[in-house]
Structure formats: structure tokens, C-alpha cells
Write a structure and sequence with these properties.
81% of the residues lie in helices and 0% in strands. The protein has 124 residues and is mostly helical.
Length: 124
């Protein structure tokens, strides 16, 4: 069974946001800003790529919002030197990714896929 791309991008967003939340309080401000810039750049690119390649509208919207939050956060990581802002941006990424995961899991297609009944033929 292949991993759903939407699930993969959203889990990446949750993990990256958690990593950056820890980075914001553990590293000096200058170093945390550059780490944030790098991670947010990657998230913005992954979100934009996911939005372009997604087939469902809800996935396009979710990945697009994740990309926009990543874009804003990478700019903010360079312009502003506040660990509180980096922490807030990291939590925003986690929130957007979790919201997109929730929308995906509650979609009708996902529920129908989980309730699919498979019958097996008895071996004679």
C-alpha cells in the first residue's frame, strides 16, 4: 500500500513545526532564525509542489495554505529577530498541517475506503 501524498506532506509539516518550536527556545536567536529560514523554505516548496500536483480541490487548498504559511514564515525568520515569532510560526505550521490531516480523514472518500467490505472465497 502506497503512502498518500497528502498524508506525507501534512505529517512532514507537523514534524517540521515541532522541530522548529523546539529550535526557537533551544538555540540562540540568530541560529534559530537561520534554521527556521531553511526549514520554512523547504515547507514552502513542498506545500507549493503539493498544491500543484494534487488532484482533489481540498488537497490543493490545504497544501496551498501550508505553502503560504511557510512562505510568510521564511520571510519573517529573516526580517524579525524574535524567538516568540519563530515559535508562533512553527505552531501555525503545525496547526495548518493538522487541520489538513483532519479534513482528509473526515472526507467521504476516506470513510468509504475504510468501510470497504472485502470478501474472500472459501478454498475448496
Amino acid at each position: 500500500m502506497a503512502l498518500n501524498t497528502r498524508f506525507g506532506v501534512d505529517v512532514l509539516g507537523v514534524v517540521a513545526g515541532g522541530f522548529l518550536a523546539v529550535t526557537a527556545v533551544a538555540l540562540p536567536v540568530h541560529a534559530a532564525g537561520w534554521v527556521g529560514f531553511g526549514v520554512f523554505t523547504g515547507l514552502a516548496l513542498v506545500g507549493a509542489l503539493g498544491a500543484v500536483l494534487a488532484t482533489r480541490l481540498s488537497a490543493r487548498i490545504g497544501h496551498g495554505v501550508l505553502g503560504l504559511v511557510g512562505l510568510w514564515s521564511l520571510i519573517a525568520a529573516l526580517v524579525f529577530t524574535s524567538p516568540a515569532l519563530l515559535f508562533a510560526d512553527a505552531l501555525a505550521v503545525v496547526l495548518v498541517a493538522l487541520a489538513d490531516l483532519t479534513v482528509h480523514e473526515l472526507s467521504t472518500e476516506r470513510v468509504v475506503h475504510q468501510l470497504e467490505v472485502r470478501t474472500t472465497e472459501p478454498v475448496a
